[in-house]
Amino acid sequence: MSKTDLALLILRDFHGEIVAKIGECIVLSGCATVRQVALSTGIPQAKVKRAVLILVQHGIAEFEQNKHGFIDYKVDVNKIVYRLQFPKIMRCAELLYGDPAKFMVEKLLFEGRATMKSLIKTETQRLNECLRAQGDSEVAPSLLEERFEKLVKTHFLKRCSVPIKDARGRAVSLEAPSEELVFVMPPKESGTERVKQEGEPPSKKLKVEGEVDHAAAADSATSEIYWEVNYKRFLQHFRDQVLVAAVASRLDNEKAGEVLRTILRHCEKTTNPNEYVSQPISYHEIQAQLPRDLGMAKQTLEQWLKILTDTMPEFVSKSADSGGGMYAVSIFQALQTLCTAHIESVVEERFGSKSLRIFRVILMKRQVEQTTIEKCVLMPAKEAKDLLYKMFREHFVHVTELAKTPDHAPSRTFYLFNVDLQKVARVVLDRSYKAMKNVVIKQRLVVSENKRLRDKENRKNVVIASLQKQHSDLLAEHGEGITDEMKEEWEREVDAIKSMITHHEYEQLEKASKFIHHLEASQQQLDSTIFLLESYLAMTYKPPTPKPARDPLGR
Amino acid sequence: MATAAPNIKQEPVDDGDFEGRIVLLCQEHTEGINDAIIKAALPLSDSVQRVTALNNLLKTGRITVFQKKGTSDQPVLLYRLKDEATTAGPVKGADHQEKLVYQIISEAGNKGVWIREIRMRSNLGVPQLNKLVKNMESKKLIKAVKSVAAAKKKVYMLFDLEPDSTITGGAWYNDNKFDHEFADVLNQQCLRYLESKSASAKERHTDPLAQQNGALATADEVHRHITELGISTIKLTVNDIKDVLNTLIYDGKIKEITRVAAAGSTEEGQKLYRLLKPLIPTTGLMRVPCGVCPVIDQCQDEGAISPATCVYLKDWLNGIL
Ligand code: SF4
Q1: Helix A141-153, helix A116-134: angle, nearest 10
Q2: How many Cα atoms are found within 13 Å in the side-chain-facing hemisphere of A25?
Q3: Which CA distances in Å does A365 have to A352, A362, A371, B225?
Q4: What are the chain B neighbours of A439 within 8 Å (beta carbons)?
Q5: Can B13-88 and B96-168 be said to share one CATH topology?
Q6: What is the dihedral sign for C-alpha A234, A236, A237, A241?
Q7: CA distance A291 to A296
Q8: Mean predicted confidence (pLDDT) in A422-448
Q9: B300/A515 Cα distance (integer angstroms)
């Protein structure tokens, strides 16, 4: 699977060769104990233990005691692939709750987990350093605290699972915090601050296999609560953004998108993200929650709702007339429509617009004979046949045989063409992962090819900067004493160092940075394809659960 | 052949006699005779013999068969002597076989009939039939028309008939070849018309609803517009335009809306068309070379085809400079 390949590549980038190797071993065997991993990779157990610890720390691996009393580790490939979303997640946090939120989320993403206290302390420092550098005034920890609380309230952060220990104090499995607690802030601490563990790297705090720390176990109450980023919540947020963008694009109007955004904002709070259809919201509520600065008149809102329900029923539907009309978002259908759109885009670009026509005939008619297709598409029968078979060969369209007679003789059999959306989505998804992997590899190649040059450039910059500092110091010290000649001399010195890098080399560097930029942009675009297909397929994997009590966002 | 027993191939013993009797019967009953009458008149015959006789008569074109509502709802088959005028008609002086072939061809109407089928139904040998057909063609009784369904397939029909559109392919076939340039031009022109309609609606109205409704057009309107453009040398019907509009729907570029008929009116809902803006920009996968790559399935990290050696990626990157 291309997804696993990609995941292992990312793991190597983030955590180095050894962790990647161990990760690979666990992924390929499904689940494994430390001993097994050590045996099959030939890496000493102590190292394996450390690597596994890192994986657990980042929420990539989970563990459980198997029936022989050993600890089995499992790696979740999805969690690794989420790393490609880090920039997006940080940007999102920044947009929603400003720099403090961005800093805290960044830290949590890269460290895996942290207590609120240590997080706020380190990040207040880091943020203030940045602010100072920019010449802005500093912020107080209380601001970060407030933002932290907001992030938890809106479910973007959540409590980590806590290790369960057996009688000998070994952590044997992880237990997700109870539903009532995942998104609950600990009660505010009173004056007696406990600073004992602050500053310590959090990885030391996680106790895996054998390490015992009685003190920590005793006061696990407040300061021992570890927090992590709730990916699912971010993904849901991104999903909603995709829906909004789609509506705005189709209706060619941003305001239409904003109407949907308002509805979705409301649904966030009322609806389980796995639900096929959101809880309905009344017209009056939509009106009340519509951002004021949109300046949308009542009548316009009514019209948009009518247009939405009339022309895009796959997105928004009217479920009742009470309360000025009740509106619901058909999340599954909307995703399915979008998934179809992505697949159609693939068909159009890969096979041509004529093939898209054929593909859509099949989609719209569901089961259709070749002759019917040929009639519908207004193109020479032979061409239509060629295009159709090409798509068939690449598994974009499928055939159902319907034999009129029990002998299945071809002449007495109907061949009905159809499209199995989920199958095609999986084909496209796998290719997208493969493309992503290729682009990532290419990017690393470009980086490494230019590493020598880049280092040289950096060295040059450092030298120049220090020279210039020297000169300006001298200037400040001796003031008038510096003659123009000396200044010229200095300039010549600097120029000489500048010419360490030739024009040609300079161009080469320019080129490389353009390439890298382009490759990064492509990764983001690929990510949008992958994201949508994954979201759609995730909803098809299991039927929606019959509504659990409340909050579904936990793992 | 319109009788109940399809599989009669055994040689009739005494059919000449039966045939004569039936013809006589027909002359008596000018309004037509049914099986019951024949049975009554020929008590010695069994059903197989009767059917054989009738079939022979039908084949040689001496009688015709037609359906009539019986006393119950079941239709009954009636046989009648063929009108001298039609039998003789254009094939005057022709022999039996020619008459037979002519009849088979004329029955096929403007859809035409394939030579193989004529042969099967007439029971004539290949050389004989070919000669007959050639002969008739030269007499301008019938003509051969190439079908668009298959390149080599010819069908025969009466000379003065206009071939059906399933044979010629309708407006889209020129000289028996699909004129896809023509179809494509029309596809684009129809789209352009709906685009301009949508744009002007957006200019004229501020109301979203009015903008949406202003962008709608009926097939008639589009048809009128295309006719006025004068891009087509052949006369296009509204149905031809509907075909084109359908391709645009399949292309995902326009949408069809059925306006519900006003309550009480007998008209059925009217079909309206409107431009459809895309839901998403080109998907990410297709913005990198791997999306269109013909060898993606063979591409491996360390293989002959790999991202490190890939020329597609290289050209693509150089393309942005
Ligand atoms: S890296 Fe090159 S060869 Fe491999 S899939 Fe992409 S375009 Fe094709």
Answers
A1: 120
A2: 24
A3: 20, 5, 13, 29
A4: 288, 290, 307, 313
A5: yes
A6: positive
A7: 9
A8: 90
A9: 22
Cβ atoms of residues A108 and A66 within 8 Å: no
Phi and psi at A318, nearest 5°, equal -95, 120
Backbone angles phi, psi at B251, to 5 degrees: -70, -10
Q: Which of B148, B178, B252 sits opposite A379 (nearest CB)?
A: B178
Place of tokens 């979201």: A535
> How far, in Å, CA of A474 to CA of A487, rounded?
11
User: A503 alpha carbon to ligand 1 midpoint, in Å?
Assistant: 32
> A52 CB contacts (<8 Å, ≥6 apart)?
A22, A34, A37, A61, A63, A73, A208
| Candidates B195, B198, B288, partner chain A, best to mutate (most A CBs within 10 A) | B288
Q: Do B285 and A435 touch (CB under 8 A)?
A: yes
Residues A308/A247, Cβ–Cβ less than 8 Å: yes
- At B235, give phi and psi (nearest 5°): -80, 125
Whose structure tokens read 């966002």?
A553
For B225, the token pair is: 């517009």
CATH class name, domain B96-168: mainly alpha
Return the bridge partners of A73, or none.
A32, A63
Whether residue A499 has pLDDT greater than 80 = no
Tokens of B278: 């895309």
A61-65 and B254-259 strand pairing: unpaired
Give the start-end residues of each E strand in A5-128. Answer: 31-32, 61-65, 71-75, 114-115
Give, using CA atoms, the residue closest to atom 1 of ligand 1: B307
Q: Give dist(CA A466, CA A361) in Å, integer.
A: 68
Nearest-CA neighbor of A305 among A336, A329, A322? A329
Residue A7, both tokens: 């995941």
The per-residue pLDDT for A311 is 83
From residue A531, give the alpha-carbon distance in Å to each of A60, A198, A228, A263, A428.
19, 37, 21, 22, 12
Residue numbers of A between 530 and 549 with CB closer than 8 Å to B = 530
Q: What is the pLDDT of residues A227-239, one digit of tens each?
A: 888 888 888 888 8
The fold of the B177-277 domain, in CATH, is Arc Repressor Mutant, subunit A (1.10.10)
Which A residues in the span 59-88 are in contact with B, Cβ-Cβ below 8 Å?
none
Can you tell me the distance from the alpha carbon of A378 to that of B184, in angstroms, rounded to the nearest whole number? 9
As a whole number of angstroms, the distance between CA A63 and CA A86 comes to 24
Q: pLDDT for B125-147, tens place per residue?
A: 888 888 888 888 888 888 877 77
Domain boundaries, chain B: 13-88, 96-168, 177-277, 283-321
For residue B45, give how far its alpha carbon lies from the nearest alpha carbon of chain A (Å).
38
Helices (H), A251-352: 254-270, 283-289, 298-311, 331-351
**Please, is A229 exposed, middle or buried when counting C-beta atoms within 10 Å of its C-beta (0-12, 13-18, 19+)?**
buried
In the numeric block, which tokens belong to residue A238? 């991104």
> What's the alpha-carbon Rg for chain A, to the nearest Å?
29
Which ipTM was obtained for this model? 0.74
> Cα A328 to chain center, whole Å?
26
Tell me, what DSSP letter sits at residue A84?
G
Domain B13-88 class in CATH: mainly alpha
- B307 in ligand 1 pocket by Cβ < 6 Å? yes
By Cβ distance, the residue of B249, B252, B321 closest to A356 is: B252
Residue type, A246: A
A81, A231 in Cβ contact below 8 A?
A: no
Q: What is the pLDDT of residue A46?
A: 83
Write the DSSP assignment of B260-316 as a string of letters.
Answer: PPPTT--SPPEEEEEE---SSSSPGGGGSHHHH-TTGGG--TTSSS-TTT-HHHHHH
Going edge to edge, which strands form the sheet with A71-75?
A: A31-32, A71-75, A61-65
- The pTM for the full model equals 0.73
